[in-house]
Amino acid sequence: MPTMRLDKFLSAQLNLSRTDAKKLLRAGRVTVGGAPETKGERQLDPDAAEVSVDGNPVVYREHLYLMLHKPAGVVSSTDAPGDRTVLDLVPPELRRAGLFPAGRLDRDTTGFVLLTDDGAFAHAILSPSRHVPKTYLVTLTRPVTPEEAAAVTSGLILPDVALKPASLRFAETAPDGLPVYELVITQGIYHQVKRMFAHFGDPVVRLHRVSIGGLRLDPALSPGEMRLLTPEEVAEIRQNGV
Ligand code: URA
């Protein structure tokens, strides 16, 4: 494993400027392998070194992978002046340079957004050639007809694009009496789901993403909450198409 400078390690893992990392070191708050260390240039193996600040171990993560339950009214971009973005929801201890949403949901769409600073991973799950499945719960104004369902499952032809076959099944009747369908798509065309049902004159009333690459949104997460993905969960997304 290549080595890394201690001040760089601290600034990357704790989202500190290099200057603030050096201040921590100078203040004698950092230990490596249990021994106090004040030198930022100290080289260490980030995977093996036992670094602590004020006695609290600093866990090394090369990349962050976060599962966010996106609430309505939040935009899926990194910078939108005047708007609340998905990055504004990240708690301070999980903030890190380079974090961005790997795939966007519309402002009014809720559900699973994956945030990461791993560009190669994001590229892989977004790449059309990888066909990573995404599952949505779609609330409509009326039930789909058998002909509409057949068109969705065999590949809907929109005026400008022929969509790939998708899977569609009735899920439940919502408390307001509207039909909810589970839809699995493997593309990421802009406004794809809304366009599909607008094509039938059956507008989407609510849209919620429940899974990416077979990994379901954790039901313990309330809207606006997020948690780290486990390495097993990251591997599961990779296996499902990536
Ligand atoms: N399709 C849409 O139309 N909107 C989304 O937010 C996601 C998929």
Coarse shape: elongated
Q: Find the CATH topology of the largest domain.
A: Alpha-Beta Plaits
Q: List all distinct small molecules, including ions and cofactors, that are bound in this structure.
A: uracil
CATH superfamily of the largest domain: Alpha-L RNA-binding motif
Provide mean pLDDT, rounded: 94
Query: Structural class, please?
Result: alpha+beta
Unreliable runs: none
Percentage of residues in DSSP E strands = 25-35%
The share of residues in helices is 10-25%
CATH class of the largest domain: Alpha Beta
Distance between the termini: 25 Å
User: Strand tally, please?
Assistant: 15
Largest sheet at a glance? 9 strands, mixed
Can you walk through the features of this model?
With 242 residues, this protein is of the alpha+beta class. It folds into 3 domains: 54 residues, Structural Genomics Hypothetical 15.5 Kd Protein In mrcA-pckA Intergenic Region, Chain A, CATH 3.10.290.10; 79 residues, Alpha-Beta Plaits, CATH 3.30.70.580; 80 residues, Alpha-L RNA-binding motif (Alpha-Beta Plaits), CATH 3.30.70. Strands 7, 8, 9, 10, 11, 12, 13, 14 and 15 form a 9-stranded mixed sheet that branches. A hairpin with a 5-residue loop joins strand 11 and strand 12. Helix 1 crosses helix 2. It is elongated. The model has no long low-confidence stretch (mean pLDDT 94). The site of uracil has 8 residues, from helix 5.
Task: Throw out a few tags for this protein.
242 residues; alpha+beta; Alpha-Beta Plaits; nine-stranded mixed sheet; four-stranded antiparallel sheet; 21% helix; elongated
